Amino acid sequence: MPSVRDVARKMKLESPQMAATPVELRNAALAAMRDALLANKDAIFAANREDLAAAETNHVAPAVAHRLLFDERKLADVCAGIDSLIGLPDPVGRTLLARELDEGLVLRRVTCPIGVIGVIFEARPDALVQISALCVKSGNCAILKGGSETARSNRAIFSVLRAAALEAGLPDACLEQVEAHADVSELLGCTGLVDLLIPRGSNAFVRHVMDNTNIPVMGHADGLCHVYVHEAADLAKAVRICVDAKAQYPAACNAAETLLVDRPIAGRFLPQVAAAYAEAGVTLRGSDDVRAIVDCEPATEADWDTEYLALTISARLVDGVDDAIAHINAHGSHHTDAIVTEDDAVAERFMALVDSAGVYQNASTRFADGFRYGFGAEVGISTGKMPPRGPVGLDGLVTYKYLLRGSGQVVGDYASGRNAFHFRDLEA
Amino acid sequence: MPSVRDVARKMKLESPQMAATPVELRNAALAAMRDALLANKDAIFAANREDLAAAETNHVAPAVAHRLLFDERKLADVCAGIDSLIGLPDPVGRTLLARELDEGLVLRRVTCPIGVIGVIFEARPDALVQISALCVKSGNCAILKGGSETARSNRAIFSVLRAAALEAGLPDACLEQVEAHADVSELLGCTGLVDLLIPRGSNAFVRHVMDNTNIPVMGHADGLCHVYVHEAADLAKAVRICVDAKAQYPAACNAAETLLVDRPIAGRFLPQVAAAYAEAGVTLRGSDDVRAIVDCEPATEADWDTEYLALTISARLVDGVDDAIAHINAHGSHHTDAIVTEDDAVAERFMALVDSAGVYQNASTRFADGFRYGFGAEVGISTGKMPPRGPVGLDGLVTYKYLLRGSGQVVGDYASGRNAFHFRDLEA
Fold first, then answer.
1. Which of A106, A191, A401 would you mutate first to test chain B, the one with the most B CBs within 10 A?
2. What is the per-residue pLDDT for A198?
3. Most buried pick, A27, A361, B85, B409, via CB within 10 A?
4. What pTM was estimated for this model as a whole?
5. CATH 3.40.605.10 domain span(s) along chain B
6. Which class for A330: exposed (0-12), middle (13-18), buried (19 or more C-beta within 10 A)?
7. What is the pLDDT of residue A153?
C-alpha cells in the first residue's frame, strides 16, 4: 500500500500530462465514467446497502444517514451532472489576455489546471462522483478522501470511475482514493506536491485543515448570512425571501442566520414575518426593540455571531443601510448577504460596501450555489478574499500561466533603449 | 502609538469605504501624491542623505547601499510610474461575468479590491512609492513595513504621501506605515484583519512569512529559471538569450540558473555559449558530458537546485524536450522557463507541460516583470499555483464578488420545479 506522500509524488510528476490532455479525451473519459456507473449500479447499490446497514447498527443520526443513500435517483442525478459537465466548454486553454509587447513578442495569459488537488469530503457517495467529474473536466489530478460512513460505497464507486477513466486514456495518476483517517494528516503535510486542498464538512473540520497545513486551502469555515429589510422594501417580497433564506434548507451554509430590519418599517414588517416564520416552524430570537413589537425569544450579543444551521433566526433593528452594512461586516462570515429594497441607489451602496463573496438585492441568500449560478456543478464555496471566491465550479479549478512567444528578444535591448515596448492588446 | 493590530482593525473597518471610492477620487489622490513628492523633494532627499550616511557608517554592502539612494532620477521614475498608473483603466468594478439566471434574476461577477494588504518590503524608498500607488489605484488599504536601512527616507516619503492622499479625500485608514521590527510578527498574526500579505526580499524571509501566518501570502521564495536550447534552435538567438537571461541582471529572480542543451547540438552550441559567457564574466559549471565538450567547472547534483543570484550558471545535456521538461518540473521553482527552438510544435509541448507561471519560446526569462508585461507596475511576482500568478500588477490586487439582482425570487420555487433557470449570458 503506497503512502499518501508516494501517491501525491507520483501524481505531481504526472499532473502536467493530465493538464495537457485534450478536452475530447477528458469528455470521453467522463462519458465512460457515466456509462460504467450505470453498468455497475447493482454492485454499487449493494455496497451502499451495507453502509446503510452499518449506519443503522452504529445509530448514525437520521439526518446524516439520509445523505449516505445512493439509489437510482441519486445515480440519475450524478449521471445528469456528468452529462452537463461534458456539455460545458473547456475551462483549460482559454486566453485571458493577449498582448503584443513589441514586434514579434506576444504575451498570452492562458488558463491551465491547478495540478494536484486534495479533496476531503463528507460521507456522500454522490459527492465522490461530482468531485471526480469536476477534476477530470478541469484537467486536474485529484486525491479523494471521503467520509468513513460510506467507505464501502466509495470503494465500489471509485474503482468503477477510475477504471473507466484509465480505459478512456487518462494518465494513471488522474484519480486516487485514500481511506484511512491518518491519511488526512499525511495529506496536509504534502506541501509542494499537492497544490490545493478543498476540505468540506463541519466548520471545525475546515478550520482544523486551515490551521494545520501550508498548502493553499479553498473552503469556508462559516456561513453566517444576513437578510436586511430596508425601509423601501416590498414587504411581501421581503417575507417570502426571509422565509426561504432561513427555512428552505436550514442546514446549508447559505441559509440566513440574522434578520436586520429598518426601524421605521419594523412595526409593520415584524408581525408579518413573525407569523410566516411561525408557520414555517422557525424560532425567532429578537433584540429588545424587536421584542417590543413581536413576542419572541430574547437574543443576546452571542446570537449575532451564531450560525444556527437549524430553524432558528435572530433579528434586530437597524438605523438605515450604513448601520446594516456595519453589522454585517462586523458579524458576518463574508459568505452571502441580501438587501430587500426597491430603492436601487441604496442597494448599490449595500452591494458596494458589504464585504462578502455574494451580495444580493431582492433574492434569497439560498441562491449562492454553483448549480444555481449556472456553473454546472460546484466543488465548494469559498469565503476567502482571494480568488476563487464564492461558489467554485470549473472556472475555480483552473489557474493561469503566461506564455511569451518571441523571436530572440533579450531584455538588454529594452534596458538600453535600443528597443521599446509598444503594448498592443490583441484579440484574445 | 497604536499597535499593529489596532491599525489593522481600524483599516479593516474602513476598507469597504476605500473599496467604494470612485476611480476619479483615487486618480486625483495619485496626482496629489505625485505633486506632494515633487513639492517636498528637498526634505525627502535630506532624509535620504542621512540614511546613506548611516549606511556608510554601518558598512552596508555597496550593492545594498545603491538601492537605498533616492535622488532626482529615482523621483522622476516614481512620478512617471504614478502618471502611468493614473492612465490605466480602473481595475475595480469590471464585470467578469454577467448572466441572467431567470427572468429578472441577473448575476454579475465584478472585480473589487482585496481589502487590507500588508506589504513588507526591502530597503528601497522607490518601492514605498510604487506599492502605495498600486494599492491606492486598486482601492486597497495598505499597511507598509519597509527596510530599516531607509527608515528616515520612508518616514519623510510616507508622511508626504499619506497627507496628500487624505487631503484628496481618501479615507483616513487608506495607508499606514509601521516601523518596528517586532511589528512584522504582529502583522503576521492579524488573521481576519489583513486579507493578504506580500513579503518581498530574501528567499529566507519570504519563507519565514509563509511558515508563520494563516493570512494568504502572495510571493515567491525562489527563482530557479531555466533556458532549454532545443536541437532546432537558431543558435545565434540562443546565445543572445542565454547571456541576457543570466547576465543582464543576475540578482533578479527571473535570471536563469541552469542551461539545458539538447545532446545533438551540444558540440556546436556549447563552445559558442561558453565563449559568450566568458566575455560576459559568467562562470559556467557543467555536467561531465558538458565538460567533455567545453572546459568549465564541474557541476554537482546540488547545482540543479541552486539559485546563484550571481554570474554563475550550471549546464547539462538533455535528450529532447521531454527530458528537459522533466528536469525543469523536478528542479525548477515554477517561476519562468524558456525554450529556444524554431520548431513550434516542440515549443507547444514545452509550454503545455512545463509547470511554471511563465513559459517562453525564443525570449529571455528576464522579461518576467510587471512593467515588461505592460501592467504599468508590479507589486511582486508569485510562483504559487493559485491566482494571482506570475508578475502581479493592478489586476492581481483585486478579487471579485458576485452581485445578484432579483425581483423577489426564492429558491423554493426552483427546488419545487415551479420556476426553472434558463442561464443566458449577457454582454459583460
1. A401
2. 93
3. B409
4. 0.92
5. 4-221
6. exposed
7. 97
Q: Compare CB distances from A241 to B210, B234, B410 and report the shortest one's residue.
A: B410
pLDDT, residue B379, reads 87
Cβ-contact B258, B315 below 8 angstroms = yes
Query: Is the separation of the CB atoms in A19 and A142 below 8 Å?
Result: no
For A4-92+115-221, CATH number? Answer: 3.40.605.10
Which DSSP state fits A258? E
Run means of pLDDT, 10 residues per run, chain B, 428 residues: 91 96 98 98 98 91 82 95 93 96 97 96 92 97 94 97 98 94 92 93 86 86 92 98 96 94 98 98 98 98 95 98 97 96 98 97 96 86 89 93 97 95 90
* CATH numeric code, B4-221: 3.40.605.10
Bridge-based pairing of strands A297-298 and A283-286 is parallel
User: Considering only CB atoms, which chain A residues are within 8 Å of B399?
Assistant: 385-387, 389
Neighboring chain A residues of B421 at a CB cutoff of 8 Å: 372, 374
Q: Which pLDDT score is estimated for B296? A: 97
> Given this model, what pLDDT does residue A63 score?
67
Integer CA distances (angstroms), A255 to A311, A338, B45, in order: 10, 11, 57
Contact A289, A233 (CB under 8 A): no
Look at residue B221 in the predicted model and tell me its pLDDT: 65
Looking at residue A210, what is its pLDDT? 87
CB pairs under 8 A between A and B: 238
More confident residue, B253 or A376: B253
pLDDT tens per residue, range A145-190: 999 999 999 999 999 999 999 999 999 999 999 988 889 999 999 9
Determine the Cα–Cα distance for residues A316 and A324; give it in Å rounded to an integer. 10
Neighbours of A428 (CB within 10 A): 12
Higher pLDDT, B309 or A312: A312
Q: Are strands A336-340 and A358-363 parallel, antiparallel or unpaired?
A: parallel
398-417 in chain A: CB under 8 A from chain B: 399-412, 414-415
Residues of B whose CB is below 8 A from A404: 358-361, 363, 367
**Is A225-363 assigned to CATH 3.20.20.80?**
no
- Residue in chain A lying closest to B193 (CA): A330
Cα Rg of chain B (Å, integer): 25
Name which of B397, B118, B373 is nearest A386 in CA terms. Answer: B397
What's the CA dihedral at A287, A293, A296, A300 to 10 degrees? Answer: 10
Where do you find CATH 3.40.605.10 in chain A?
4-92+115-221
Task: Compute and round to an integer the Cα radius of gyration of chain A.
Answer: 25
pLDDT at residue number A62: 74
Q: Where in chain B is the domain with CATH 3.40.309.10?
A: 225-367
Interfacial A residues in 368-397 facing B (CB < 8 Å): 368, 372-374, 384-387, 389-391
Please check whether residue A88 touches B, CB under 8 A. Answer: no
- Say yes or no: B309 contacts chain A, CB-CB below 8 A: no
Mean pLDDT value of segment A214-237: 91
Domain with CATH 3.40.309.10 in chain A: 225-363
Residues A6 and A173: their CA atoms lie apart, in Å, by 11
Q: Considering only A38-42, A335-339, A382-386, B142-146, which range has the smallest mean pLDDT?
A: A382-386
- Whether B410 sits inside 8 A of A385 (CB atoms) is no
Q: What is the DSSP string of A348-374?
A: HHHHHH--SSEEEEEE-GGG-STTTTT
| A426 contact B CB<8A | no
**CB distance B352–A115 less than 8 Å?**
no
Contact A160, A40 (CB under 8 A): yes
Right CATH for B225-367 from 3.40.920.10, 3.40.309.10, 1.25.40.20, 3.40.640.10: 3.40.309.10
